[in-house]
Amino acid sequence: MIGRVLERILDAQSGWAKPLGDRAHGWAAAIFSRILPIRDFLAGTWLGHPLHALLTDVPIGALTLVIVLDVVGQHAAADVALLIGVLSMGAAALAGIADYSTTDGKARVRATVHSSLMVVALVVYLVSLAIRASGPNDRSVPVVLSIVGYLVLASGAFVGGDVVYALGNMVDRHAWRPSGAKWQPVEVGEIPEGTLVKAKMGAQTLVLVRSGDTISGLHDQCAHAGGPLSEGKLADGCVECPWHGSRFALATGRRERGPTVYDQPRYEVRATAAGGYEARRLS
Ligand code: FES
Q1: What is the pTM of this model?
Q2: 227: Cβ below 6 Å to ligand 1?
């Protein structure tokens, strides 16, 4: 019930969030497309996990502490916690913008609401910090501002969680894919040398590439956001996704370039005596 009401409230924000998000996304994508290694670092390809999700814990923890310390009268410690919170918000925002540069559709609209709330929270916290730094006068205004900032921050965190949990952004598209080494028939026509070929294996769709007698197979749905790899291109022994350019090694399925932080399911493919093909999942 509460979830549906919140869903409706969030959907109602698309009137302003969509045009703002499209514009902000255009800027973010233009900047990060020129610095792909930095974008991938911020996305968390080196970690195998979205970095933004990890970094957001720091400001939320520090800014919770600000309220507790202010309430118990430890204002100097609260000021330090606030400074840590503000600085770590900046770091989390950088990683978030990197993710945002490859976020589309409804997730982008919702991520725009999330980031707008975080910007408001950050401004409120900065004002609180500036007043605290200006002298040991009446603490009531900066303390109230910290509480207001926290409420906005919590709302932003809720919406950010929604982007992941309700809309599946930055979630491994193969998290529920059944593993298993059972050979299954593959429906496919010709597999010409060095060409991406789409194939069916039961309910799964694969992308196959022939190199001599060897046929490499990956799942066709990109681990990042589900792009069709068979519509991408071959580059340096990898398949490159047509949507945001993630690259997966044909031989291993390993991510070689982000924004994906996950590897791609890999399949062993062999010819059958009847002249067809069969495949099984390896990783
Ligand atoms: S869907 Fe984003 S890189 Fe493939």
Answers
A1: 0.91
A2: yes
Per DSSP, the three-state class of 33 is coil
Give the total residue count for the chain.
283
Q: Which residue has the tokens 């890999």?
A: 266
Mean pLDDT of the chain: 94
**Token representation of residue 117:** 């709330």
Query: What pLDDT shows up at residue 256?
Result: 97
Give residues with Cβ within 8 angstroms of 93, minimum separation 6: 115, 118, 122
Tell me which architecture the domain covering 184-281 has in CATH.
3-layer Sandwich (2.102)
Q: Alpha-carbon distance 83 to 242, whole Å?
A: 41
Angle at 80 between CA 76 and CA 82, to 5 degrees: 110
Q: At what angle do helices 105-133 and 140-165 cross, to 10 degrees?
A: 160
Instruction: Supply the DSSP symbol for 279.
Output: E
The answer, yes or no, to whether any atom of ligand 1 lies below 6 A from the CB of 224, is yes
Give the pLDDT confidence score for residue 136 in this predicted structure: 67
259 CA: nearest ligand 1 atom: 3
| Most informative mutation of 231, 243, 262 for ligand 1 (most atoms within 8 A of CB) | 243
Residue 1 has pLDDT above 80, yes or no: no
Residue 3 pLDDT:
74
Looking at residue 35, its pLDDT comes to 96
**Is the model more confident about 181 or about 8?**
8
Nearest atom in ligand 1 to the alpha carbon of residue 242 is 4
